[in-house]
Write a structure and sequence with these properties.
Layout lengths: L1 H10 L7 E5 L4 H12 L3 E8 L5 H17 L3 E5 L8 H20 L3 E3 L4 H14 L3 H4 L5 E2 L2 E2 L7 H10 L16 H14 L5 H24 L2 E3 L3 E5 L5 H12 L6 H9 L5 E3 L3 E6 L2 E6 L7 E3 L3 E5 L2 E9 L11 E5 L7 E5 L5 E2 L8 E2 H7 L4 H6 L1 E4 L5 E4 L3 E2 L11 E7 L1
Parallel strand pairs: 1-2, 1-4, 2-3, 4-6
Antiparallel strand pairs: 5-6, 7-8, 8-11, 9-10, 10-11, 12-16, 13-14, 14-22, 15-22, 16-19, 17-18, 19-20, 20-21
Helix pairs in contact: 2-7, 5-8, 5-9, 10-11
């Protein structure tokens, strides 16, 4: 099993300090994996789920894996569950299995969960995904490691596993449902994969090589997409500058699909009305020039009371409030670093979202304006306007829209003697 050793070491999947929970069905793959890890001195425990889907056969599987664990003297964890007939059976079983593994991992202090998925499973998975309609995430197949779930056999073939079982005289259980062509996955295994293996020399090996390349491409794509994302108070921004519409729609999909958005929504937003909003169950997104603003639906930015000089945390930002003598030559020029005349307002100040119909008087103006209209005239899109906050004084008067504009009432004049300084970072 040199390929298995190479796979583990090259990717640094785990080491001798890890406590590994092995998912054990009783079949060839999981028995070989558990024995391989045990023989190589790793600290393991075994976990089995009895779904009670095959009557006495399921109970016999449970008895077999329990005895297997006893023979190695390792901890054994068991979960019983029954399908209620609602929803998809395979989805239910997958959820039950991995939820149980996570619970045991967290409660017992295991560092990894290992499954027996191997090279042939990888090919079957990719073909299955292609037949269902998929993108790069589907054709890259299963990853060697994801969130503590490891697949040490992912570069090990079914033939190598069978040879290992024979070498160590290991018994295993055959799941009778694996022989049935009722499920698409089994049809791929028993009909399509043998056909592919007959097409050209080493066709399955070449297909697996293609999957490996696609995994590398997928990782590179993810890293590039991460570079387009920056956090905001209530979500994030995806910067699509430099991308064509078609490429931008694809980049956007990969950036936000985990939030429940689909490809059509992303394409519609990029190619449609720039003032449109698309929504998933929990998030909404809109376009502002080359940027996509993504915001959690209904998120309320918490108020922050600022009693006086000091440092305060404002969501993703920090504000430093200080005191200084007024000197016109030293007045800051930045919209995120401002001075206010100390005599024209009083603490405490409150940082909060602006309210409907709330007004303020922009510095240098002779009249008050509606904040919503002011932000719109500044070119700030609808979703981003919801993230804008104001700072009000003890009289609930807006004195500053941080990073945007001061109110005229607190501006410094030649008669100003002392100022309160505000620096947003």
């Amino acid at each position: 099993m040199q390929t298995t050793h190479d796979h583990i070491n090259t990717l640094n999947l785990f080491d001798s300090s890890d406590k590994i929970l092995v998912a054990l069905s009783g079949g060839k793959d999981s028995i070989a994996l558990a024995h391989f890890l045990y023989e190589n001195g790793y600290n393991i425990a075994l976990a089995h789920v009895n779904f009670h889907l095959r009557g006495d056969e399921s109970d016999a599987d449970e008895a077999f894996v329990h005895m297997f664990a006893k023979s190695m003297g390792v901890p054994f964890h068991l979960h019983h569950c029954h399908f209620d007939g609602k929803g998809n059976l395979q989805d239910w079983a997958r959820n039950e299995r991995y939820t149980f593994f996570d619970e045991v991992k967290n409660s017992e202090g295991y560092t990894k969960v290992a499954t027996g998925h191997h090279k042939d499973d990888q090919v079957e998975t990719v073909v299955h995904n292609l037949l269902r309609g998929t993108g790069i995430k589907g054709v890259r197949g299963m990853m060697p490691e994801r969130d503590g779930l490891i697949r040490p056999f992912l570069q090990t073939s079914r033939l190598e596993i069978e040879a290992y079982l024979k070498e160590y005289h290991l018994s295993f259980r055959e799941d009778s449902s694996n022989a049935s062509t009722k499920y698409v996955r089994n049809q791929i295994r028993h009909k399509l994969v043998p056909l592919i293996s007959q097409i050209g020399e080493n066709s399955l090996e070449k297909l697996y090589t293609s999957i490996t390349h696609l995994q590398s491409d997928s990782i590179a794509l993810s890293e590039c997409i991460n570079e387009t994302i920056s956090a905001t108070n209530t979500g994030f921004i995806v910067d699509l500058s430099g991308f064509s519409n078609s490429a931008g729609a694809t980049v956007l999909y990969h950036a936000i699909h985990h939030l429940g958005f689909n490809r059509k929504q992303c394409a519609d937003l990029i190619n449609g009305n720039h003032r449109a909003i698309i929504e998933s169950n929990t998030f909404q997104a809109t376009q502002s020039t080359d940027r996509i603003i993504v915001r959690k639906i209904g998120f309320q930015i918490p108020e922050v009371t600022m009693a006086g000089v000091g440092s305060y945390k404002l969501q993703a930002n920090q504000i430093e409030i200080g005191v200084n003598e007024y000197a016109e030559s030293e007045m800051p020029k930045s919209k995120s670093h401002v001075w206010m005349d100390r005599e024209n307002f009083s603490f405490p100040l409150i940082y909060r979202t602006w309210t409907e119909h709330e007004k303020f008087q922009p510095i240098g103006s002779n009249y008050e304006v509606d904040i919503s209209k002011y932000l719109k005239d500044k070119g700030i899109d609808r979703l981003s306007r919801l993230d804008v906050c104001v700072i009000v004084d003890s009289k609930n008067q807006v004195v500053w829209i941080p990073g945007i504009q001061l109110d005229d009432s607190v501006k410094c004049t030649p008669s100003t003697k002392s100022v309160i300084t505000f620096e947003l970072s």
